[in-house]
Predict the 3D structure of the following.
Amino acid sequence: MMQIECPWCGKRDEEEFTCAGQSHIQRPQNPRQNSDSEWASYLFERSNPKGVHLERWRHTFGCRQWFNLARHTVSHEILAVYPMGAAVPEHISTAGDGAVEEVVA
Amino acid sequence: MSEKVGSGPLQRLDTRHRVDTGKPIRFTFDGKTYTGCAGDTLASALLANGVKRLGRSFKLHRPRGLLGAGREEPNALVQLESGGFDEPNARATLVPLYEGLKARGQNAWPSVERDVLALLGVLQRLLPASFYYKSMMWPSWRFYEGAVRRLAGLGKVPQARDAQQYHKRNLHCEVLVVGGGAAGLAAALAAAGSGLRVVLMDDQEEFGGSLLGENRFIGGRPAAEWIAATLQRLSAMADVILLPRTSVVAYYEHNFLAAVERVSNHRGPGADLRRARERLWRVRAAQVVIATGAIERPLVFADNDRPGIMLASAVQTYLNRYGVAAGRQVVVLTNNDSAYRTALELHAAGVQVAAVVDSRGDVNGPYQQALQDRRIPLLAGRMVRRVKGRREVRAVTLAEHLGGGKLGGDKETLTCDLVAVSGGWTPTVHLYSQAGGRLDFDAGKACFVPAGCAQAVAVAGAAKGEFGLRGCLAEGYRLGAAAARAAGAAQIADITAESCDDWPQAPLQAYWFTRDAAAEKQWLDFQYDVRVSDIELAWRENFVSVEHVKRYTTAGMSVDQGKTSNINALAVMAELSGRPIADVGTTRFRPPYHPATIGTFAGREVGEGYAPRLLLPAHSWHLAHGAVMEDMGWQRPQCYLRAGEDFDAAVRREVLAVRRSAGMFDGSPLGKIEVKGPDAATFLNRLYVNNAITVKVNAGRYGLMCNENGVVIDDGVFVRLADDHFMVHTTSGGAVRIYQWMEEWLQCEWLDLQVIVNNVTSQWANVTVSGPHARKVLQQLDSDIDFDAAAFPHMQFRRGSICGVEARVLRASFTGEISYEISVPARYGLGLWEAVYELGQAFDITPYGVESLMVLRMEKGYLHVGADTDGTTNPLDLGWAAPIDRKKDDFIGRRSLSRVNDLRRDRLQFVGIEAVQAQAPLPVGGHMVSCANPVLPEQTQGYLTSACISPTLKKSIGLGLVAGGRARMGEAIHIYADGNSVAAKIVSPTHYDAEGVRLNG
């Protein structure tokens, strides 16, 4: 169970939060002009990286606020927490090959 | 030369052991009474009493004795106690003896000693891995299931309610040390004393780990003295928590671990029931040191599962810890040096060691020298070809070992009643693997060792493949100090490891199975009867991936999770497929490391503690008036029973009362969400399928909401309280969900909209008055609201005062009759209810429950989202094409409605159903088919979603989803369920008052 730094409430256990999957999915401005495949892409197509994933989370059993979170899907390291509507922080690179850096015990 | 070794109860040895022979404890096993001592486990006590067979194997019902002495034990599973204390699959090796303990052998009838199902052993060639899938397909698995379930299985599931309680606690610490053996104690000592919170958890009855079962020296003194001194120092430190009897069973992300403490298990049913039996520790640690030791592996040869064949480490533990010689004449069989200590210690205790048989041909070191000094025969370059004795070992016949598991000519036959085996050691890396740690295969030690983990964890001692005692201490001290430093301790002194009685060890010889023996006689997984032949079968059928091997053969899938068998099984696969073990790899370990009771994880969240009960403001009134309550999130009356009345009669009476005069309904759970702000109308217009902009102040509108996929997710009436202020009514079950839905859109997508939303569902109590006389009832109330039909028409909203209390009244109906939904602050809910009831007496006002409401709305054909719709229903299926066409603006899900699939004419559409015979009940969930006696499989044309015998119409009616249903009005159809079908026809959903005369009256 992860520990997540809520921007409003501080560090709390994962069980207080809800994850809603990939973030930064913009609703089309005028859906009626979208083709079926464009609309399907908005509805269904999601990334599934082995590496850094940008996600939407809500502090459900706390302040109920949504925020963005950059998480490494293998190590579960949380690389950034930033507000909804904000750009991806500069130090986050999702373009990498997903290789995991490990600390040898 | 096979003379029989004498049998009968064994004696407790007069050695330095840890049981108190002055404190006898009586217990029963399979109906016989025995006596053990304080400090015994059930296993050691049975062994001391000469009981050699403790269980039967899972599939073939082979007699089984003890293999191990601790957590690794695969055979000695027992059913403990009965009634509220019933516990299946308890490992006899882990059950501390208490007075009056009662245990039964499992998976055997009538007893472990005389099990008639052992006949299955004769059929063993017919029962290979996967025989279920291959042989029980005709006519169907269900045909065999009952018999198989009776035959198979280990313990019996307890039937009585658990009489004991379970607790949970959270624990935060800087350093958590898992395992209280040499390395763990050293790590805890090194980390402690710097002001950090250090926690040491160990799963045995007392600290000391494998040292408890060995005769070792640390710093020139018996190890027990070092353990005692270390514990004394640790317990004197304020910031150290010592938790014995605590098994860390799971390692999750961010150094979160779950541990089960056995608080009073060791007292059995005699424990104080006010105290917890077990406690779940939820631990968050900055740094973790895993020092979980290693588990010895058995050697794989023909009939290696016979009672009397035991791990050398277990023989050693029974000897040193419990003072029990597990046999009188012992053969030690090994491929490494560690088992020599068992031979030497047995010899020192006066037990006859017939020989040490070593698979290695050329060994000569201090261990071998020590045997020679004591004149214990060493037979090097040998392996067992045959085991004599079916119910217990009587002798073994050896053969020359040519290497790689190949045997040469027969050699000696040794009479014995115990074979102590060692096939090397497997580091206990389960938790490390759960933490996400990688494992590498160390070919020299023939085991998987930790090789890196992203979490803050270190592994010390045998768990890391360090099998020397001094090395364990040194690693423990070093990693304990390192963990404390990493957790922020400034002043940590390094401790130098004491000298130990380690001897240089010769390399182990990997010995995975016997090439020249029948593969179906060589056991790998003792608990699930998985043999070398099963791995061969998997290999032949190309299940060569280690994850497939495991699931196909069930190796390692039993309650012991393959603690003694995993490595042997995957090594056999590696040998067969000609790959290095490193390439075969190991399965990923998953929690729990050791079985944990469900009670521990449930804790206090059972019964009334499971979830809070939501009570209506008028709850007490409802109960006093015969309400039949049901938990629907809220406790809600289904109907109100009068004397001599049954449920159906009550519902009929309530429905007719609403139709004829007036009824009152507690609608408090109705979802109420306030939406306020300059952009409130814009926001709702985006959420609702229909237009929200054009709704006038003090008017309501019925609306549908979709998700972005065009599926209907909720419905209800929303009311405009002011230009910038709305009250959204959701379904009673949907309030929280829709509130979160609104928040999500506002916070994540439309950050520019100036709107706030607030769920006020529980702030407002609601009394709904419905029926032709509803208006007259309300006009009796002391109120400044004009209820006159012209002044207050249908779908209008008024605010005012009722009985001096602020009230909000919406004229909207879910019954088809004139209805007023009166909301007042929750604290006035009971008062309003009582006032309406009293004033309504003149009109014979009748309280009605949810079940009656469902009949009323069904008669009227009102939709119930979630009952009459499913996860595919879109607004077009409900006949909403026209309102959608009229709306210009976009809304959530609108684009999805123009997809080809959403426009299909044969989609399931919402219709009414009427049975041909007026009193024939329609089966809810039944499928729509074309003929009365369909030949299965028949294509379904939809299904029935709601049904009742209408008290008003005196007909059997329903609602349903039918393919292309709206174009099929009047068509005959059959509703099929459970082999029967009911003749019906498709009609309009509005069974009652289609013109809406009564509604608008």
Summary: The CA atoms of residues 348 and 374 of chain B lie 9 Å apart. Chain B touches chain A through 35 residues (CB under 8 Å). Chain B is about 20% helix and 30% strand. The two ends of chain B are 108 Å apart (CA to CA).
